[in-house]
Description:
Radius of gyration: 19 Å
CATH class: Alpha Beta
Structural class: alpha+beta
Amino acid sequence: MPLPDFSDKEGIIDLIVERLGLVPIDYEERVDFIRSRNGTAERWLAAGVILLIHYHEEAGREGQFLLQLIKRSSIVPQPGDLSCPGGMLHPSMDVLLKHLIATGFLPTLRGKALSLARSRGANTFDHVSLFLANALREAWEEVRVNPFNVRFLGPLPSRELYVFSRIIFPVVGLVKRDWRFQPNREVERIVEIPLKALFDKNHYGTLTVEIETPVHFRQQVEPVRDFPCFLFTPPGGKEEILWGATMSIIMNFLEIVFDFKLPGEISDRVVRKSLRSDYATGNHNSTPC
């Protein structure tokens, strides 16, 4: 498929808003599912995340769209993974912030994205506003992205994390101006991936996930399974591996907006990743890198 014209900043943004505004989403059904599990042994939780996109312009260079992801620190679950800023829903704080967004006090939800969100019906609009508020609050806490500097572009379908009994509600936001990120203890650093790079099949490979299990005071590594992954090395940095739920969210975004699917033929690269025994909980006794 031909590569989109990423030099057309407004054209790409309009395309994202249009495609995301029309894609079916399941927020109402998934919230009802979570509520039905409250008070049971099979309790599920809700989490909002935001896929941040920024159009970076630099003197003498062509502007480019960047995905701004976080690399999780060692003290949180899934340490070392790349993810979108976000976290668990906070009922009282996020409901308050939702009202500030829905009433226009925060200029995040406006224009065509607002009208398309409202056209989904009152209940769905309420859920989209709530998880947008949830994700913006978490993004402020994690990397100090100012909510006034984010423009809502649209929602993405939810994703289930069975291992954590959690449902993720992703939204997409445009970071309007360059911002000085200030990661908290939960974030090791910011990783920026050019949107254009995701269309290059040579960046895709296979990730063999292994899990470390203690055997007679030694660590034994056992392969678990293989996953598709995206491999990218930031300028002056080390190679980063995008995989799992975050890669699924991003690939869903690419398919909805640009009709791009994971290439059938990818590079022969195979990389291995060992998951420590505290992968699902984080090592709270360690110091973030």
